Amino acid sequence: MPSANSLIRMRDTSGLVLDLIRSGGEISRVELAGQSGLTEASISRIVRELLDGGVILETGFGLSTGGKRPTLLKVNNRSRHAVGAFLGESAVHYVLADLGGSVVATLETAGVAHSSLQDLLRRMPAELDKLIRASGVPVDSLVGVGIAAPGRRELGTIPRYDELRDFVDWDWRQIEAELAASTGLAVAVENDSTCAAIGEYWVSGASATEHFLVVNLSIGFGCGLVTGGDVYRGASSNVGEIGHMTIDWDGPQCPCGGHGCLEVLAAPARVVAQALEIDGLQGRLGLSAEKGDHWSDFERIAAAAMNGDAQAVDLVEHSARALATALVSLTNVLDLQRIVLTGPGFDVAGEIYARITREVLEARALIRNAHTFEVRLSASRHGSAALGAATLAIHQQLGGSRRSRALLGT
């Protein structure tokens, strides 16, 4: 458990206090002082700023411990909103969410598999405007836009995976700058797995002292380590590439330059490729075998597996075992107790992935005799990246003094 001082170093004090109120549900000033390590005078000042900004509310009185009854505080969820967008191959999924992570409105538009960056930047302002107008929320309550994008920052020499994934090379800074200029809103772009981890932390009501791993499956596998009320980003914000953990040293070459990576052995495109090698399975499941349709083909295979089709079950369980093998290593290194599976890849057959992961960890993890493992599916896995992107826009307002002032409207 991080100390109060380490928590304060991780984020601006106003953001820390607001985060403690959010995770506490209802909490008093005295409790905030005890949990944050700040003085009661500092807590009173910050709480007054938050109250004046309408971001929190006084809700009543708690139980007396000998003196006067303490006033309870909670986040005013509908006081601020943010938009999140997940740039998926088959669809761009938008959500508009409040401070509590509740979804107010959604919108789905054409995916980016065959779009250019300029095409996307031309249409996004109109799509955002449509979403905001349909939601009915006041425009001045919007704190910004978060965008969840497959890929990583500043990877430079790592080659593109194929023509369907050119958008992993899009310049995130260009997206931030041009979309901010065209909408007048603060824009932040982040990897979809990091967004999913932030969203899971935010909407699950997790404490700022909790630690857990979020595994995201969309185009490929990614993960985010939630620790100390934030997602660990590493030296260059390129942490979480579980898809490029080596599972089979002598396995096929991966476009990243490695061999036997989880991505090349078990990602949705690989599951579809394996299915197409099985005589008769393509026709029986109605697989298109078109490169641009591999996501819908994967969902058909996953649905067949959930319905008990033996060949589909074998394909999905093989993918799940490869993932679980990677998670054994991460569990041994990080001493994990909780793993959350999220993302659209787990939307149909997530129960199979969770079961296999749990079984493999219980059988092979080094610390299996020290404690139990919780492996569960996220409740918001279908829209987790978009929701996480919205909470990213909110979360970033808690991270520094300038952003905290923006959240407060000061």
Sum up the structure in keywords.
410 residues, alpha/beta, Nucleotidyltransferase, domain 5, 3 domains, 5-stranded mixed β-sheet
Describe the 3D structure.
This protein is an alpha/beta fold. It folds into three domains: 4-75, Arc Repressor Mutant, subunit A (Orthogonal Bundle), CATH 1.10.10.10; 80-202 and 385-408, ATPase, nucleotide binding domain (Nucleotidyltransferase, domain 5, 2-Layer Sandwich), CATH 3.30.420; 205-381, Nucleotidyltransferase, domain 5. The protein has 15 helices and 13 strands. Strands 6-5-4-7-8 form a five-stranded mixed sheet. It is globular, with a radius of gyration of 22 Å. It starts with a helix and ends with a helix.
| Highest-level CATH class of the largest domain | Alpha Beta
| Protein structure class | alpha/beta
Mean pLDDT: 84
* Strand content range: 15-25%
CATH fold type of the largest domain: Nucleotidyltransferase, domain 5
Number of helices: 15
Number of strands: 13
CATH superfamily of the largest domain: ATPase, nucleotide binding domain
Number of domains: 3
Name the quaternary structure. Answer: single chain
The ordered string of helix (H) and strand (E) elements is HHEHHEEEEEHEHEHEEEHHHHHEHEHH
Computed over alpha carbons, the radius of gyration is 22 Å
The largest beta-sheet arranges its strands as 6-5-4-7-8
End-to-end C-alpha gap: 33 Å
What summary fits the major beta sheet? 5 strands, mixed
Helical residue percent band: 40-55%
* CATH structural architecture of the largest domain: 2-Layer Sandwich
Globular, elongated, flat, extended or rod-shaped: what is the shape? globular
Low-confidence stretches: 1-11, 155-166, 398-410
InterPro entries: ATPase_NBD, ROK, ROK_cs, WH-like_DNA-bd_sf, WH_DNA-bd_sf
Protein name: ROK family transcriptional regulator
Pfam family, one: ROK
Family: Belongs to the ROK (NagC/XylR) family.
